[in-house]
Amino acid sequence: MAKRASFGRGRPINKVLRLHGSIARDLGIAIVSGRYQPGDLLTGEVASSEKLEVSRTAYREAVRILAAKGLVESKPKVGTKISPRSKWNLLDPDVLAWTFANEPDLDLLQSLFELRDIVEAAAAAMAAKRRTPEHLEAMRDAIDRMARFTLATEAGRLGDQDFHRWLLEASGNPYIISLTTGVQAAVNTTTMFKQRERPLPRDPVPDHIAVFEAVAAGDPDRAHSEMSTLVHLALQDTPLPRARAKRSAG
Amino acid sequence: MAKRASFGRGRPINKVLRLHGSIARDLGIAIVSGRYQPGDLLTGEVASSEKLEVSRTAYREAVRILAAKGLVESKPKVGTKISPRSKWNLLDPDVLAWTFANEPDLDLLQSLFELRDIVEAAAAAMAAKRRTPEHLEAMRDAIDRMARFTLATEAGRLGDQDFHRWLLEASGNPYIISLTTGVQAAVNTTTMFKQRERPLPRDPVPDHIAVFEAVAAGDPDRAHSEMSTLVHLALQDTPLPRARAKRSAG
DNA sequence: ACAGCCAAATTCCTCAGACAAATGTTCTAC
DNA sequence: GTAGAACATTTGTCTGAGGAATTTGGCTGT
Hints:
The structure is a homodimer. Helices cover about 60% and strands about 5% of the residues of chain A.
């Protein structure tokens, strides 16, 4: 039998999960997808670990992960309870990935792009004011690779990611960097394999160049609006779950 | 006597931490404050748990919490390594609290307010377009309480928080809500006890009313700019580390 | 009948020790 | 010199036990 590691094509997007990680992922998906409702109690540690056929240690570490992301809360004598949605760390990279793991909620996806629009456009404007020559050089090189290899190749996608990474770096705000990279990672991994089949509907290079030139020119307003259009185009190119009416969870 | 209607929730700012939670907090503070550097290896589980005089179970659960927030990464035969800053979930509420637990870094605080400015102003603009009469009623009531009791009292501060909470609610974007409430909670808890002694330097009610009226009028642009000034005023009123008084001291 | 205190039951929390799995390192064969 | 095997080390998982915290119910005094 061949190894099942056939996924790992050099990129560390698929990190091998330990047992506690798998349990946390499964439970996390069950929670964010609504199979457990806020206020519900998970069955006790002993019962849960027995049902999953794992040790209490592994199960407890999984619960600890979920608690760290605000999804659950454990107290003696009461049990482990699903927290209200207002306490969830919705922007945690794992929570984002779990949220969009299966059938992405259309409203949620739109809200996410709304946030991306706001934050990334602002980041571009800040980058226009703070970028150094080194930043510009790295961004130019990234666009070069993107144009040379196209997004159909690994190298091309890497150029795309590098462009955005350097743009964020140029914004100089670590919180914006942390927020955006996490969101982008989740969006990429969840939408990438979907648009694997069909060719990209549009050439993204000119739009990136427009952002770059605005940043290079030190024009915050233009950088803002150009990045905003870039995000809107990304939303348009995102394959939406049009199968909503057809498929039903079985 | 009717029960307390508004948000029912008291203030959970002081949550009792279990052993693993305390260890995670201590280690987390040590990491975000730079006492451990990215790339550093923590001493092995057995040695660490012995030095802390706790069981390996408790220590491992603490590490699991830190790993869930992106601060560390564990691999067999290698150990538990401090992750590069780019992987930290800087906007995780706990990480934020740990970051500003002791001596808040001035640059980081400024970056945080920069993000608040961007996101909360956008949220106010969205709220101006999407608010319902119920939202407006709740916000009006919150401002009322804020004006009646002043921010020197618990009830007044609750009104302030309720105002912002309802404004975010009116924005209708769960990601913006999650982001902002987490940031606000961290900023509040870290700056609140500092400005307890001195009286507030300025009456915040008129500024809040300005935001409210713009939202009520359905004017996104005005709501945007009024909220922006509100955030800037909040930054001005934030007691900064007085060590900056003499800038070029040494 | 009711408020406040006390005891009991339940659940998570912590501990200790052992073995298994994974991974980096070293050694060996060719 | 390189590829593969053996080894050592560290985290990962399991098991069993007891302790700690919190809710629940009952008891007591008024």
